[in-house]
């Protein structure tokens, strides 16, 4: 679990727990007034297990988020905080808000037309605040902060959700993302008729009730709530596998190709002027044992290509786990690569990186056109290797190490 700080309204720092892999679709959890992110513990566990990235945010004046020196705890400030946090995320999460957190999320997302979030779950935050709900709400928020020292006691005096009930109803009409409204069947907040009206009014909304649960069923019956939430997410905001089709974005294709884990090599040769030349390459493949052939693919844009094409010989140096700096040096343009790296001339004239896991000295066998790369095939004249070292690995754009369970 990692902690991250976001800049909220007026630069106030808001704190959140980040759990799961940030490559998974994300869910942002927003607790109710007088609570902290810790109330989501069980729900967050269930979401991470189901392959979601979870961000649990503390509202301003709550938990590890900063307190407002000048008591800016109005509903509007809380809505602006959420907008600011959503704008700082790399992807559009589903926002799950309980009680006050739900109204904040509904307002931010409903007014915004769906650019900031991909879905909304209202846990015991009825989208219509009638007089009875407003009364229950005011009482619950005013009494809650006193229950915990993790909340600025002034928060309950300033927060003014009841005054924003019209704004909330209006924002509800603007919701375009998938919405789930969940309430405890015994909750004093809202009622089933109002929920049905909401579902009729908002085409993307659905309603679920949790039996035997009162206000904030999320936490009373977190197992039942998690089941309803996961069902909603799987149906309405499913995990999508990135999909590349010929001509669509090259980034997705690169990421798909990056799912194939490789080692890392430095391909070297001696230029006609007798200068060592080399670049980092993970496109290395063994081709044939008889004759002994291997290949690497060199980008046509590579400044090393001319020397590799001109020379009759080249070498492939397989890097070990300690040679990540060598890989970086030979991948970076403008570096004086060989002055920073120990090397010596091999038996057949190609530069060999000292201490590599393996060195293959090759005579050029063939060159093929390979789109924006050239396929360089070498016949191995000599190979030596270090039997006791681990390789440097490369997977999904990152260096990795072998891990034996
Ligand atoms: C892990 C890794 C693998 C790479 N594999 C290749 C490769 O197979 N072929 C290639 O042409 N470039 C590859 N590159 C990129 C080159 O190393 C990089 O563009 C380098 O700056 C080229 O240098 P040059 O233009 O001096 O030849 C790789 C880079 C990294 C970090």
What does this structure look like?
The structure is a single chain. This protein is an alpha+beta fold. It folds into 2 domains: 2-236, Alpha/Beta hydrolase fold, catalytic domain (Rossmann fold), CATH 3.40.50.1820; 252-400, Pnp Oxidase, Chain A (Roll). Helices cover 28% and strands 28% of the residues. The protein has 12 helices and 20 strands. The strands form 4 sheets. It has an 8-stranded mixed sheet, sandwiched between helices. A 7-stranded antiparallel sheet has the order 11-10-14-17-18-13-12. Strand 3 (26-30), helix 1 and strand 4 (53-57) form a beta-alpha-beta unit. Helix 3 packs across helix 6. The two termini are 22 Å apart. It binds flavin mononucleotide. Residues 264, 279-283, 297-299, 302-304, 327, 331, 333, 394 line the site of flavin mononucleotide.
Number of strands: 20
Could you tell me the strand content as a percent range? 25-35%
The CATH homologous superfamily of the largest domain is named Alpha/Beta hydrolase fold, catalytic domain
CATH class of the largest domain: Alpha Beta
Would you identify the regions where 5 or more consecutive residues have pLDDT less than 50?
none
At a glance:
This protein has 405 residues and is an alpha+beta fold. Helix content is 28%, strand content 28%.
Task: List the keywords.
single chain; 405 residues; alpha+beta; Rossmann fold; Pnp Oxidase, Chain A; 2 domains; 8-stranded mixed sheet; 7-stranded antiparallel sheet; 12 helices; 20 strands; 28% strand; elongated; binds flavin mononucleotide; hydrolase activity; riboflavin reductase (NADPH) activity
